[in-house]
């Protein structure tokens, strides 16, 4: 049994965690999020706010939505998240001519590159990040937190510059996917809610912002916090493997 566990952990891409987390903590937490479905703790009233969708439906819903969308996506595990972001990024780049930024937390930037360049997606990540200027992959801890440990305050001008930069290179708009797991890791749950509520419910620009929550992280929020977040976002989705009635 020990040999099997060691093999599985050794085979997985190295997780992202700051140096202050020891090696055992990094491996175990990554392994749990890789496969744990994170049992939902949504109340009945909240289920009416957070829509349950199969991955392909969630991708199409967000993709075809008008610009300005601020969306919350709750995912059960890393396998499902990878399916979601790989499909979405491919669609937005190939069909919508967008610039995409993705900020992962429970995997490294290089892990995201391997996911996007492998399997049925097979994107030329090096070209998209370089010559095409269609893709940026950034560590979410660096995106959301400064070197002193304080989270970065929302600045609408930053998003507007992202749109301007995208249009400068001939793109139609900008999609930003960010995993907020960094807030939970830093013990800044209240800061997360404050940050989210500081963002517009709807952007007056060619932006789609997708906030990614692992189900276990979402479960750590109080019921009122979940409700406020779901209501504040223009769209809230919980993704599942297949269509559910």
Description:
The chain has a 7-stranded parallel sheet, with helices on both faces. Helices cover 47% and strands 16% of the residues. The protein has one domain (2-240): Rossmann fold (3-Layer(aba) Sandwich). The protein has helices at 2-11, 23-35, 44-47, 55-64, 78-94, 109-117, 125-129, 140-144, 156-168, 181-185, 189-198, 215-219, 223-232, and strands at residues 51-54, 70-75, 99-103, 135-137, 174-179, 207-214, 235-240. The chain is α/β, with parallel strands linked by helices and 245 residues long. The longest helix has 17 residues, at 78-94.
Strand content: 15-25%
Give the class-level CATH name: Alpha Beta
Q: Can you give the helix content as a percent range?
A: 40-55%
Count of discrete alpha- or pi-helical segments spanning 4 or more residues: 13
Q: What best-fitting shape do the alpha-carbon axes yield?
A: globular
What's the helix-strand series?
HHHEHEHEHHEHHEHHEHHE
Radius of gyration: 17 Å
Structural class: alpha/beta
Q: Kindly report how far apart the N and C termini lie.
A: 38 Å
Characterize the largest beta sheet: strand count, sense, and whether it forms a barrel.
7 strands, parallel
Reported CATH architecture: 3-Layer(aba) Sandwich
**Are there runs of 5+ residues with pLDDT below 50, and where?**
1-28, 39-48
Q: Strand tally, please? A: 7
Sum up the structure in keywords:
disordered N terminus, 245 residues, Rossmann fold
Brief overview:
The chain is of the alpha/beta class. The protein has one domain (2-240): Rossmann fold.
Chain-wise SSE layout:
Blueprint: H1 2-11, H2 23-35, H3 44-47, E1 51-54, H4 55-64, E2 70-75, H5 78-94, E3 99-103, H6 109-117, H7 125-129, E4 135-137, H8 140-144, H9 156-168, E5 174-179, H10 181-185, H11 189-198, E6 207-214, H12 215-219, H13 223-232, E7 235-240
Parallel strand pairs: 1-7, 2-6, 2-7, 3-4, 3-5, 5-6
């Amino acid at each position: 049994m020990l040999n099997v566990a060691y093999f599985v952990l050794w085979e997985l891409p190295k997780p992202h965690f700051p140096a202050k987390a020891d090696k055992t903590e990094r491996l175990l937490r990554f392994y749990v999020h890789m496969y744990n479905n994170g049992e939902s703790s949504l109340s009945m009233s909240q289920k009416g706010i957070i829509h349950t969708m199969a991955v392909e439906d969630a991708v199409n819903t967000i993709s075809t939505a008008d610009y300005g969308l601020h969306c919350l996506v709750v995912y059960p595990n890393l396998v499902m998240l990878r399916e979601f972001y790989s499909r979405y990024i491919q669609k937005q780049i190939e069909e919508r001519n967008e610039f995409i930024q993705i900020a992962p937390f429970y995997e490294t930037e290089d892990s995201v590159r391997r996911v996007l360049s492998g399997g049925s997606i097979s994107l030329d990540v090096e070209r998209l990040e370089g010559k095409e200027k269609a893709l940026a992959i950034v560590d979410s801890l660096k995106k959301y937190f400064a070197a002193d440990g304080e989270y970065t305050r929302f600045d609408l001008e930053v998003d507007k510059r992202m749109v301007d930069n995208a249009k400068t290179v001939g793109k139609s708009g900008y999609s930003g996917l960010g995993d907020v797991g960094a807030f939970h890791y830093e013990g800044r749950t209240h800061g997360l809610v404050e940050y989210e509520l500081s963002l517009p419910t709807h952007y007056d620009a060619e932006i789609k912002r997708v906030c990614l929550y692992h189900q276990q992280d979402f479960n750590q929020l109080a019921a009122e916090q979940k409700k406020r977040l779901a209501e504040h976002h223009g769209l809230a989705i919980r993704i599942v493997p297949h269509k559910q009635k």
